Amino acid sequence: MSEDVSGADTPRRNQSRPTPLHAVHVALGASMTDFAGWSMPLRYTSELAEHHAVRNAAGLFDLSHMGELVLTGPGAAAALDHALVGNIGKLAVRRARYTMICDADGGVLDDLIVYRLGAQEYMVVANAANTAVVMAALTERVAGFDTELRDATDDYALVALQGPRAVELLAPLTDADLGSLKYYASAPATVAGHPVLLARTGYTGEDGFELFCSPDDAESLWQALRAAGGPEVPLPAGLACRDSLRLEAGMPLYGNELTAERTPFEAGLGRVVKFDKGDFVGRDALLARAESGPRETLVGLVGRGRRAPRAGYPVVDPATGAALGVVTSGAPSPTLGKPVAMAYVPLDRAEPGTELAVDVRGRQEPVDVVALPFYRREA
């Protein structure tokens, strides 16, 4: 999970809330930006260098802007099964699940990760821009269930260590058995002497960990991780490279690929909707869409030239120029060395190998439809 940083180069400092790591970012000379009401590092030196660091070694992210909502009590699982599209009741303790919260019409309000922390305790991690929306929807939906819901965002800072060297760098600092910690699992652990919830999750397409800790411990924990591999590994990484990393990995972004105007089925994520669990908010609308099939679908596009498609650019028929769809995310791919994009197009234009074009500022740029993701790490 990540969020849009396009057009965010101009800070609005008077409206920005600092994360517990704000002083660290300033000391590192980060370019700061207002994002979803938080003052966040956009980049430290070069987003290209930060991108390559995550792909080839490791990067260190401050994700303390994400929202953490905690449900406790004997009815917590049933409440989440009613509120969300996934089957949370079958989630094992210490495991996590990617899911969504949809409105009654099936449109996506946010994509989420739910961690089951104990027999009767769950943590829902929401995108920063949608935390209030998710909290309001959950408050309404869990009423009547035997559960307590609270916004625990202020209780946590969140640091992410991502990249192929993440295990190597983290292992000497923790008492956790990293070899037994599976993907989309979590465990209470100690890292650099600080208690954390250690999760093997991430949004970069690489192996890595997300560390939920006390805000008071965040700076010390960051500095310990920062020193783990020497002066350049892990490299502090900002929102800009986080966006290019998730794009290469074909991961959807709320506000771009996911919106209240589209269901999970258009986004190719119908697998997260679990009809067999019983009733839930949006079930009827989603079942109707599943049975009828979506009218458009999300595809990958790879450009043949050098000009990158960007969000909002029209996808057109290269022969006639007729509009077919719209780019939801696009950028030059540092890993592939080519422009890449995700876009919604009609089903009959979604087959890999289909030749399309994107209107880039009045000029047609040829693109080829490809299967997502653009990049997949070696196992």
UniProtKB/TrEMBL annotation:
One of its GO terms (biological process) is methylation. Substrate binds at residue 210. The keyword Transcription regulation does not apply. Its EC number is 2.1.2.10. It is an enzyme of class 2 (transferase). Belongs to the GcvT family. This is Aminomethyltransferase. It comes from Streptoalloteichus hindustanus.
